[in-house]
Amino acid sequence: MNSNARRSFAFRQRPSAPCAQCDQPLPSPEWSEDLSETRVRHLWWCHGCGYTFETLVVFSDEFRDRAA
Ligand SMILES: [Zn+2]
How distant is the alpha carbon of residue 48 from its chain centre? Predict the structure, then answer.
């Protein structure tokens, strides 16, 4: 199944998240850091209210294999 891999790739290329404080959509993270092959940490900064937060994205190859 290519659909899962494709979705992960797309998400990895274009991450986005709403501000946790004022709910303003943030189009891209201020900073992204690859922790490993399957873990990416994004640092977000809302220019509207100045709030900063982090998200951790985990790509599970195990789950994909099990689902297929
Ligand atoms: Zn905000």
Answer: 20
Q: Which two tokens stand for residue 3?
A: 């659909």
**CA 28 to ligand 1 centroid distance, Å:** 13
Per DSSP, 37 falls in state: S
Give per-residue pLDDT as tens, 18-30. Answer: 998 999 999 889 9
Considering its fold, how many domains does the chain have in total? Answer: 1
pLDDT tens track for 12-65: 556 788 998 999 999 889 999 999 999 999 999 999 999 999 999 898 776 555
Ligand 1 center–CA 52 separation, angstroms: 8
Backbone angles phi and psi of 43, in degrees to 5 = -110, 125
